[in-house]
Amino acid sequence: MNMNDLIIKKRDGGILDEEEIRYFVAGYTQGKIPDYQMSAMLMAIYFKGMNKEETCSLTVAMRDSGDIADLSSIEGVKVDKHSTGGVGDKMTLIAGPIAAACGVPVAKMSGRGLGFTGGTVDKLESVPGFQTTITEERFVELVNKHGIAVIGQTGEIAPADKKIYALRDVTGTVENISLITSSIMSKKLASGSDGIVLDVKFGDGAFMQTQEEAEELGNLMIEIGNAAGKKTVGLISSMNQPLGRAVGNSMEVIEAIDTLKGKGQGEKDLIDLGLNLAGLMLYAGDRASSLREGFDMAAEALRNGSALEKMRQLIEGQGGDPRVIEDRSLFPRPACKMEVRAPRTGVVTKLRAKTVGIASQHAGAGRMTKEESIDPTAGIYLVCKENCPVARGDVLAEVHGKDEAKVQAAAKILETAYEIGEQGGPEEPVVKTLIGV
């Protein structure tokens, strides 16, 4: 079998069989196929697509490229949650503790930032001392003790995805339904959880642009998950503007903590999406007999403070400083800040999520190349979102970071994210529909 022949076959619209897909996945993982050939294959897949059988074969080949975690020693029905990626998406840090507070073991495997979207691992590592690289034994111990732990993707779990994920990020091949599905589901199927909850996003700041595309992706992932014996459910959510007000690693952790404090704190979109996801996790974890019961249980955990306590246990259990719950000054501090101001009086009629994400990436909160490090202090705080009335000169947003030149460049980009008109429009709900239930 020859990689060049397979590239040409897919380039010309051919259908790859299971053996051919296993060949190039194994070859690339083992270093026998170079980056430039795998990049060509990814681009061919991006333009020509894969059918359902090819996508399933790719998912299974990537799952089988490494170990499959054995979490059978974790008590209860383990549930993992995954988002397809968005701007300001800190839902693992909100829904995870809520679900854990209600008795669902949350054994969460998370990734790093991909393009302009943030990664949960990068966010948690902005907490002083927090370790996401821990042994599987320690991971199991923490879930049994606290009900929640978050581990970074190891070299042993779906190593094919780890390599391909990084290559997609820098070759313009992220937004493809088969590549997204295989990336997500290979890790989910190898991670050892019993149930999977999917947050499939669409809109300006998501990989899927329309709700119909998101539903197609979501239903494909649910079909693959259920076929593999995992109870898989999910929802479709809007990413036409960023979630919450914070976009950037330490800033998003702070906002998640504030949301878990309840008592009127937290943005409405974060609370709505967080409670819906947590409710689905309770349903998938057999803690709730219906979605309504799951939602009500989640709302009570947010109200009574037990979800915040789970966040404290998560941080402390993985070496982080739990004092950050009350003292945000313990987070790394940005060296500089720049404000973006309204050029005219009116109402914010549009806030482009993707542009905000790109600006945050340029400030240092995301990666331009797969080798680049993250600035945990970098990011954007959105003072104004859609339908916010403004006067000329009002602050629309703040850009933070340690590199002044990057902050200035990010501010220039961020200016183009806002449109100001005469009047706003109807409020768009963040949760559009449930899938798989």
Automatic annotation (TrEMBL):
Keywords: Glycosyltransferase, Transferase
PROSITE patterns: THYMID_PHOSPHORYLASE
A GO biological process held by the record: pyrimidine nucleobase metabolic process
Any Gene Ontology CC annotation: cytosol
EC number per UniProt: 2.4.2.2
Enzyme class: transferase
Family, as annotated: Belongs to the thymidine/pyrimidine-nucleoside phosphorylase family.
Function of the molecule: Catalyzes phosphorolysis of the pyrimidine nucleosides uridine, thymidine and 2'-deoxyuridine with the formation of the corresponding pyrimidine base and ribose-1-phosphate.
SUPFAM superfamilies: Nucleoside phosphorylase/phosphoribosyltransferase catalytic domain, Nucleoside phosphorylase/phosphoribosyltransferase N-terminal domain, Pyrimidine nucleoside phosphorylase C-terminal domain
Catalytic activity from the UniProt record: 2'-deoxyuridine + phosphate = 2-deoxy-alpha-D-ribose 1-phosphate + uracil; uridine + phosphate = alpha-D-ribose 1-phosphate + uracil; thymidine + phosphate = 2-deoxy-alpha-D-ribose 1-phosphate + thymine
Molecular function (Gene Ontology), one example: 1,4-alpha-oligoglucan phosphorylase activity
Description of how the protein assembles with itself and partners: Homodimer.
Domain Pyrimidine nucleoside phosphorylase C-terminal residue range list: 347-421
InterPro entries xrefs: Glycosyl_Trfase_fam3, Glycosyl_Trfase_fam3_N_dom, Glycosyl_Trfase_fam3_N_dom_sf, Nuc_phospho_transferase, PYNP-like_C_sf, PYNP_C, Pyrmidine_PPas_bac/euk, Pyrmidine_PPase_CS
Protein name: Pyrimidine-nucleoside phosphorylase
NCBIfam families to which the protein is assigned, alphabetical: PRK05820.1, Y_phosphoryl
